[in-house]
Each structure stands twice: as structure tokens, then as C-alpha cells.
Recover the amino acids of this structure.
């Protein structure tokens, strides 16, 4: 009886420790609101919430329009989430929102409802249609190789707050 109890206890310990190791090795799932764009960034849930926080904190709102099934969105998300400078600025200097649907604010789609699309809204709640990417046919889209352009546009959004507000 003692032998079978000891065997059972050792088996239980072995299974438990292997299970604990397996659980530790699993990657942490992304924060629900980040959707893979940056788990260390605080994301707002709605456009209205983003506007409220932008005005309250005097920080620009950065709105990322994307779709899960879009290969261009996935490619942009990968480089966006891996770029340390973008992640740091997004975390510290911006109110962040990523949307997989359109908003009722037509100012967020001045040249069409395409994805990926990144728009900036200043704390006075003005959509900054003057902050564009490098493509004339889709002014607010960015491709993976456009991260330097996006970084400059993020800096521009911050400069405009200081000079205009």
C-alpha cells in the first residue's frame, strides 16, 4: 500500500512539473485590444473613447484601420509591432486605437475606405488630413518599408500639437 501511494505521488509530481513547464513555454496571447499591433501599448476600445482621451491628455489620437484577413495589414502589423521607436512613441506619446470597422466620422476616410490606413487626430479633435504617407492614390496607407515615413509623421503630429495648440 505504501509503495503504491509513493508511486502515485511521484507520478503526480512528474506530470505536474511537466505540465507547468509546458504552460510556461506557451507564448502569452496578445492583449485583446492590441490585436497584435503592440501588447505593451495601452489601446482604447472605441473612436469616441479615443477622442475623449486625446482631448483630456492633450495627446494626438492615432487610428489604425485594418482587417484580419488582409495580407497588407498583416505585413504592416508585423513591422509596426517590431519597430522599437514606433512602439515607444505609441506607448508614451499617443492615444492608440486600431479598428477593424469604419467609424461614423467620414473625416477618417477622406480619400476612401481602404486598409491599411493610419490617420491622426489632434487633441482639438481635428482629423489631420495633412499628415499623409507617400502614395498619391492612397494617401494614408503605409507599407512595411514605410516605417521611416510613419515615424516622421508621428513626430509631425507631435510637433503640430506644440505649434498649433
Amino acid at each position: 500500500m505504501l509503495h503504491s501511494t509513493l508511486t502515485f505521488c511521484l507520478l503526480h509530481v512528474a506530470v505536474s512539473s511537466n505540465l507547468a513547464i509546458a504552460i510556461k513555454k506557451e507564448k502569452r496571447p496578445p492583449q485583446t485590444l492590441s490585436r497584435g499591433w503592440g501588447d505593451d501599448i495601452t489601446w482604447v476600445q472605441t473612436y469616441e473613447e479615443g477622442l475623449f482621451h486625446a482631448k483630456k491628455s492633450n495627446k494626438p489620437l492615432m487610428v489604425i484601420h485594418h482587417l484580419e484577413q488582409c495580407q497588407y495589414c498583416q505585413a504592416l502589423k508585423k513591422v509596426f509591432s517590431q519597430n522599437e521607436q514606433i512602439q515607444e512613441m505609441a506607448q508614451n506619446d499617443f492615444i492608440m486605437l486600431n479598428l477593424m470597422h469604419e467609424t461614423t466620422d467620414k473625416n477618417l476616410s477622406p480619400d476612401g475606405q481602404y486598409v491599411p490606413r493610419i490617420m491622426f487626430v489632434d487633441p482639438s479633435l481635428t482629423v489631420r488630413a495633412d499628415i499623409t504617407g507617400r502614395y498619391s492614390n492612397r494617401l494614408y496607407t503605409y507599407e512595411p518599408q514605410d516605417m521611416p515615413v510613419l515615424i516622421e509623421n508621428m513626430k509631425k503630429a507631435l510637433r503640430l500639437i506644440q505649434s498649433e495648440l
Remarks:
- The two ends are 80 Å apart (CA to CA).
